[in-house]
Every structure is written in C-alpha cells, then in structure tokens.
Write a structure and sequence with these properties.
The complex is a heterodimer of chains A (about 325) and B (about 525). Chain A has helices spanning about 5-25, 35-45, 60-70, 85-90, 125-130, 130-140, 175, 190-200, 215-225, 230-240, 255-260, 265-280, 290-300, 310, 315-325, and strands spanning about 50, 75-80, 90-95, 100-110, 115-120, 140-145, 145-150, 155-160, 180-185, 260, 305. In chain A, the strands form four sheets. In chain A, strands 2-5-8-1-9 form a five-stranded parallel sheet. Chain A has about 325 residues and is an alpha/beta fold. Chain B has helices spanning about 10-50, 55-80, 85-100, 105-110, 120-130, 135-140, 145-195, 200-215, 220-265, 270-290, 300-320, 330-370, 375-385, 450, 475-500, 505-520; strands spanning about 400, 405, 450-460, 470-475. A two-stranded antiparallel sheet of chain B has the order 1-2. Chain B has 16 helices and four strands. The radius of gyration of chain B is 52 Å and the shape is flat. In chain B, a hairpin with a 2-residue loop joins strand 1 and strand 2. The chains are: A alpha/beta (about 325), B mainly alpha (about 525). The interface of A and B includes residues 2, 230, 284, 285 and 290 of A.
C-alpha cells in the first residue's frame, strides 16, 4: 500500500505528464485545447472517442499529432462503403513455406495498433462498422475461432462528418454507446486561423517530439482509476444519468417531451471516470460534482436518442443535457 | 461512530463551529420572521379598524385572511425547523460558500466509511488542512437575512400608511360627499322647477314622489326603481293624451283656416256656415276634453307640432282679428281661442314633464353607477343581459342593433373600391356578406340530360302506327363531339411525348429497330 506522500507524487506526475502532452500537441494543433484534453481523458480512462466536425478543421491532424507525441503504434483506416470487416481486422492467408508446405497464416489488419484512426466511420456499412465493436469493448479480436488480444493501450478515434449525410450509414446506438466521449470540433476563430496559416504555409512545419512512452500512459491510467468518489457525488452522477430517461419520475419535463431513450449505464461509468481525470487535472484527490458537470455533455450527448418532436423543433441533445444539469439538485451530503 | 481521522480533527472542529453558527443563524431568522409576522398581523388589524368593515361577509373574509396569514407563518416555521442542521449540512454549506468543490462533503463521507485507502487518507489529510484554514464566521455568518430588512421596511411603511390613512380618508370622503351632494341638490332643484311647470296634478305628484325617493339615502334601489317606473308610466300616459289632443287641434285649426280663406274669397257672407264652424269647434273641444291625451316627441310628432303651432297662431289671429273674424266676433269664438291658447300652454307643460322624467332617469343611473362596484364594462354587460335581443347580429345582414344605434357590418372592415386579392375567389367573401365562391376544380361536367339522348324503339309492321314499343339512352351529339375532341387532344399529347423521347425513335418503330439490333451479327469471314 502506498503512502499519502506517494499519492501526492502520483498526482503531480499525472498533471505534469498531461500538461506536457497538451503543450506538445499544441505546437501543431492551434486551439482546440478542450478537445485535446477530452481525447487525453478518453485515453486515460480506457475509452474511445468520436470526433465530429466539418471537413478540414484538423481532426485527422490532431490524431496523428497525438500518436506522434505519445510514441504509440498508429494506423489509419479510411472508411468507405466497400470496406470489408476483414480489411479492418485482418484475414487468414495461404502461406507457402520453403519446404513447399502450405499453411494458413493470419495477416493482422490495421486494428492491431495502439492508436486507430477510423476516418469518416459513418461511410462504411453497418457490417464493417460492427467489426470494431468487439475490439472497442473487449480489447480483443476473434478470427476463425481464435481470439487475439489487442496491445494496450488500445485507443480508437473515429471521425464523423455531420454535413454530407448522403450515402452514409448512421452509427447504430450500440456502437455509439461504446464511445466514451463524443467531441465536437468547432470552426477556429480568426486569431486561430492566422496561426494555422502561419504554421502550415511556411517552409518548415512544426514537428513534435515523442515525449511519453506506452508505460507512462498505462501508469497514468492506473492513477486515474485510483481517485475515490464519495457516495453523494456518485449519487449526483446517477441522478444526472437517470434524468435522461423519460420514463423516470424525476426526469425534467424537457426530457419527458423530447427524449425517446436515455443513457445506458455506460454513460454513468463515463461520467465518473471522466470526472476522475478532471479531478486529477484540478489537483484534487477527490471527485466533485463540478467534475461531473464538466464531462456531462461529452459523455452523454451521443447516448441520448431524441424523438421526432425534438428533431422537428431542432432541439439538440446538448440542450437537453444542459436542462438536466440545471434541474438536478446538488447533493445534500 | 468510527472515523478515519484523529479525534478531534480540524475538520470536525471546524464543521462543528460552522454547524453551531448555522443553527444560531437559523434560530435568529425564525425569531425574526415570527416577529415580522406579528408586526404584519398588527398592521393588518389596524388597517381593518380603519376601514371600519361593517358588512358581515367582508368581516368573515378578512378573518379568514388573518387565519391564513398566521397558518402560513406556522407552516413556514415548521418547515424551517424540520431542516435540522447537522455536520453534513455544515459541510455542504462550507463547500458551497467556500468554493471547495465538495471537498468537505466527500471527506466527511469517507471519514464515516470503515475502509480507507491511501488515496482516501490523502484526501482526508487535504480536507483537514482545508478545514483548518476555514473561517467559520465568513462561511456561516450569524446575521439577519436581507429580505427580513426589506420586510421590516415594508412593515414600517404600512404602519405609517395606517397612521396617515384615517385623516386622508375622512377628508377625501367629505370632499366627495360635499361635491356629490351639491350636484344632486342642483339636479333636484332643476327637476322641481320642471315639475312645477307640469299642469297635470297626477303626473306632478308621481314625479315628486320619485324625486323624493331618489333624494332619500336610505331608500332601497327597488323602491326607487318602482317609483321611477310609476312616474314614467304617468308621463307616458299624459304624453299619449296630449298626442291625441294635438291631432284634434290640428284638424280644428285646419278647418278654421279654411273657413277664413273662404270668407276672404267672398263666401263669408254665409252666416249658416260660420255658425256651423263654431258649433264644430265647440263640439270637438268638448270631445278633446273628454278624450284621454298623449304625445311622444318623435321626429314625426315634432314636425306635426311645428305645423300645429303655425295653425294655432293662424287660428289665434283669426279669433283676435276684427277684420278677418267677422263671423267669429261673438263671445263664443273668443272663448274657443282662449281655450286653444290654454291647450298650447298645456303642451308646453307636457314638454317640462318629459324633461323632468328624463333627468330623473339620468339621476337614478348616476346613483347606480356611483354606488355599485361594477365596472363600466360589467355595467354594460348587465344591461345587455337584461335585453338579450339587443346586440345580436342579424343573420341576413350581419348588422347589430345596439343601444344608441346600429353597428353596420361594413363599418367594421375597411373596404377598397376593388376586391383585394385575398377576397377574390375566397369563400369567406367581403364583410357585407357577399361571397365569391372558389373556382370549380376538375374538368367541366355536363348534366346527364346533355350527355344522353333518349331514343325510341319503333314497332314494325303496321303502317300508320307510330307508337313506340320501348326506349333507351344513347350518346348525345354534344357528348359525341366532346369524346372526339378528347381523342384529338390525346393524340396530340401522344405525339408530344413521342417527340420528347430521348431515344428519338417513334413508338411504332421501336420494336423494328430493337429486332434489327438483336439479329445483327458479325459477318463470317469469306
């Protein structure tokens, strides 16, 4: 059992590592500090992230930079309608030995990496999309009766373009639920655009250094999970999750009116784990309700299924969640 | 209770201090609110004393209000007492007011748990440090809430109002009473003057009674209405009598004028005719005296009144003129003219009676409006309810007959010279009731009588007989031409569709072309 002093050291180290990664990524990526923090939170909470944004705002660049900084094995899959599950997972191929004997050998797909970028995931068919399901949830791949574990940390970053919906396959709820956070990348500001142009149109583009090893990431993951959560705070997270369920008695009126299905228990898990990382970043050894509120939108926005009335009145899930956070009373200890 | 912190820990000490301060603060607030409730109650009771509520209903309502007020205060106090202050509440308040992000709340919860990991210990140590630096006086100050100061200011203000209100109320009431009484006295004097001018003692008595009732403060509204209705009836009866008298007088004056004209044209030498006129005049006057009389001052009657006045003047001249009244020089005609003048005076008296009853009615309406609490809208509503037929729009024209005139339906809508686009073809039509129907949809449909033609089946054989054995319907010529026209149109459309075909191959040649290409083979080399 470690002592109190060790805990303090772990916390300091966690914050220091996090700050370093953030700064290093910030050398290439302009702005988007919250999204960088969100991606790091997902990585450290053993989750996967879904990035939504219009084309050209640096989704892929962000992921590539992160992979470079973290010194992790990186692979990119461009999802297209004709992409097959075997293109992701891998397939058995006939291999002829020197002696002329033919054997079946498994050729590993791009999913066997630490950092997998699933670019434009909604362009592939549901069958191909679901090939990622087992990998994301179980951290393993089953092929031809064999279950192959994936190397840790395994982190999937999927991107989605919200504009061109023609010829796309919206992600099924089961798969959406497996993403820890859904982050929305907004358009950069005028100042940020100046910086982007300056950095990318000069003779030399900034290059990042590999500053964190695989072991450090796994260590940070352990630290994040160690943060204790008091029952009143956990109760608050549960009440927020239950507030997304229209059939629940304490759900706000807006939820009852516009929501078809609420968040799954994975939503609560995401709230608590995300809040733990937030608490560590704030230099606290405990989780507060403010941490829960800070991650609530990212953790729950893709886990709420809106009804037709909400679609017709252009009510977004963020609006519903903000209403729930306003209406949910803070714990009374 | 088992705790993970050394006892007494700074966390517990500080939280106990905060708890005590919270408890005292809450007690102080409750006491202040109770005091405030009593002050307000006292102000309310004083206000009730000022308003001098005599009506039992109002008294009951106000009593209920007081009971409700104290009931609300009691419930408030009970609710405040129910929220007991403990360490958890103290931790929550300290977290919220100190911006501690649930640190003390979490620490208190972890402190009560049996297991303690190193992380929890670290957290408790941090929380103890934070609690040590906490100032309980800043987190939980013992002071009265600001809202209570506001309530105290309000109470003082109300108390001041209740102190000032009685003198203001009395002076205002006196002012109002003196003004109203003076106006009423003026009206009554005017009405009395008009009553004196009336010659009918019965009418005068009724009017006097009604006026006395309206002047009496303790007279009931029912009694006032009854006496006013009696007076109205008497005046109307008198008007009817005078109307009849006017009619007779008109005829009489006409005859007198005729007799003068005749005397001027040389026929005045007939003493028998003059005697006859006198006799007729006397007889008719007696008849008028016996008959009941009335008049109503509608426009027609007014015109007749003017005409009558002219004729009466002529008749007076006739009676008083020595040159023109050669046949009426005796004492009898003069008496008749005198009586005519008397009647004219009674007509003037009738007008005074009408004015008096009108002013009495106005006086009564004024009293009703002043004394009732109904607003102007509710007053007119009640008037409309008394006359439900009034204000109902006519189903034919849409015009509404209302008190004081007619509301024409066209007046409600601004009309242009031409119908607007929205009115054209609209079924709702214009405001005056004209309705332009929508154009008929679909193709034109002819009645069956146009489409069909009845044809008879003739008997064969017998010559000369033209009787029909039976009949049937066949296509009429009009229908035939219609169908043929449709055929022509269909052909045109077909040709048009063919021309627009992207393949540019006519339909009838399409199969031939297809067969040609299907059977086309490469020629075998020779």
């Amino acid at each position: 059992m470690i002592g109190v002093q060790d805990v303090e050291k772990q916390m300091d180290k966690f914050r220091e590592n996090f700050r370093t990664v953030r700064e290093e990524v910030g050398r290439v990526i302009v702005g988007n500090d919250d999204n960088i923090a969100g991606i790091m939170t997902c990585l450290l909470a053993r989750g996967h992230v879904l990035l939504e944004g219009i084309p050209g705002i640096g989704k892929t660049k962000l992921v590539q930079t992160l992979a470079d900084v973290l010194h992790l094995k990186f692979s990119r899959i461009q999802f297209t309608p004709d992409l097959m599950p075997s293109d992701i997972i891998g397939t058995n191929m006939v291999h002829e030995t020197d002696t002329g004997r033919k054997t079946m050998e498994f050729q590993r797909g791009p999913v066997f990496a630490n950092l997998v970028l699933a670019d434009e995931i909604n362009r592939a068919t549901p069958k191909t999309q679901s090939a990622l399901l087992e990998a994301m949830q179980e951290n393993s791949v089953s092929v031809a009766g064999q279950t192959l574990p994936l190397e840790q940390p395994f982190f999937v970053l999927a991107t989605m373009n919200p504009l061109e919906m023609e010829g796309t396959y919206p992600l099924p709820e089961a798969q959406l639920d497996r993403f820890f956070f859904k982050l929305k990348l907004g358009f950069p500001s005028s100042d940020a655009l100046h910086q982007i142009v300056d950095r990318t149109t000069s003779q030399s583009e900034p290059v990042v250094e590999r500053i964190m090893s695989q072991g450090s990431i796994l260590e940070m993951r352990e630290t994040a999970r160690s943060v204790p959560v008091a029952r009143p705070v956990q109760d608050y997270a549960i009440r927020v999750t239950l507030g997304t369920h229209p059939e629940h008695g304490d759900a706000p009126d807006m939820t009852k009116r516009y929501v078809r299905f609420g968040s799954s228990p994975r939503g609560t898990q995401a709230l608590i784990l995300g809040a733990k990382v937030q608490a560590l970043l704030a230099g606290r050894a405990h989780v507060s309700c403010d941490d829960i509120r800070a991650v609530a939108l990212s953790a729950l926005r893709h886990r709420i299924l809106l009804n037709f009335e909400a679609e017709a009145e252009r009510i977004s899930s963020d609006t519903i969640l903000e209403n729930i956070l306003d209406k949910t009373p803070l714990p009374k200890a | 209770m088992a705790t993970n912190l050394p006892s007494p820990s700074p966390l517990h000490q500080r939280l106990n201090e905060v708890e005590n301060r919270l408890r005292w603060g809450r007690r102080l607030r409750i006491a202040a609110w109770i005091l405030c409730a009593f002050v307000f109650g006292a102000v309310l009771i004083r206000a009730l004393g000022i308003t001098q509520v005599h009506q039992p209903l109002w008294a009951v309502l106000l009593l209920l209000g007081i009971l409700g007020f104290f009931g609300f205060g009691t419930a408030l106090v009970r609710e405040v007492l129910r929220q007991r202050v403990g360490l958890s509440e103290a931790a929550r308040v300290a977290d919220a007011r100190g911006g501690l992000h649930d640190e003390l709340t979490s620490a208190l919860w972890f402190d009560r748990q049996p297991d303690a990991s190193s992380w929890i210990s670290a957290h408790l140590a941090r929380a103890a440090r934070t609690a040590g630096g906490l100032n309980p006086g800043a987190v939980a100050p013992v002071r009265l809430p600001r809202s209570l100061w506001g309530a105290a200011v309000l109470a003082v203000l109300f108390y001041g109002l209740t102190a000032v209100a009685p003198s203001m109320r009395e002076s205002l009431a006196r002012l109002e009473e003196s003004g109203a009484a003076a106006e009423q006295a003026r009206n009554a004097a005017q009405i009395r003057a008009l009553i004196k001018q009336t010659d009918n003692p019965d009418v005068a008595q009724k009017l006097e009674q009604a006026l006395a009732a309206l002047e009496k403060k303790d007279a009931s509204s029912q009694e006032k209405r009854k006496l006013l209705a009696d007076a109205k009836e008497a005046v109307e009866q008198h008007n009817m009598e005078m109307n009849s008298m006017r009619e007779g007088l008109m005829q009489l004056a006409e005859r007198l004028r005729n007799s003068k004209e005749k005397s001027g044209s040389g026929e005045d030498g007939n003493p028998e005719r003059a005697d006859r006129a006198k006799e007729l005049l006397e007889r008719m006057m007696d008849q008028r005296a016996r008959q009941p009389h009335s008049a109503d001052l509608d426009p027609e009657s007014l015109a007749r009144e003017q005409e009558l006045q002219k004729l009466l003047e002529q008749a007076s001249k006739l009676g008083g003129n020595d040159e023109g009244g050669r046949h009426l020089e005796s004492a009898q005609p003069k008496a008749v003219v005198g009586r005519l003048e008397k009647i004219a005076k009674s007509l003037e008296a009738q007008a005074a009676g009408n004015s008096a009853i009108r002013q009495l009615s106005q006086m009564q309406q004024l009293q009703v409006q002043q004394t009732t609490v109904q607003s102007a809208g509710r007053y007119s509503q009640s008037q409309a309810q008394q006359n439900p037929l009034e204000g109902t729009p006519s189903p034919d024209s849409g015009n509404t007959e209302m008190k004081g005139g007619i509301m024409f339906r066209t007046a409600a809508v601004a009309r242009g010279d031409k119908p607007s686009e929205s009115q054209e073809g609209s079924k709702s039509g214009a405001a005056e009731g004209d309705s332009q129907a929508d154009p008929v949809l679909g193709k034109k449909e002819s009645p069956l009588a146009v489409k069909l033609k009845k044809e008879a089946i003739r008997k064969e054989g017998e010559e000369g007989e033209t009787g029909a054995e039976g009949w049937y319907y066949s296509e009429s010529r009009a229908q035939q031409s219609q169908v043929e026209l449709q055929g022509v149109r269909a052909n045109t459309r077909y040709a048009q569709g063919e021309a627009m075909d992207p393949e540019q191959i006519s339909v009838k040649h399409r199969q031939v072309v297809k067969d040609y290409f299907l059977n086309l083979h490469e020629a075998k080399p020779q």
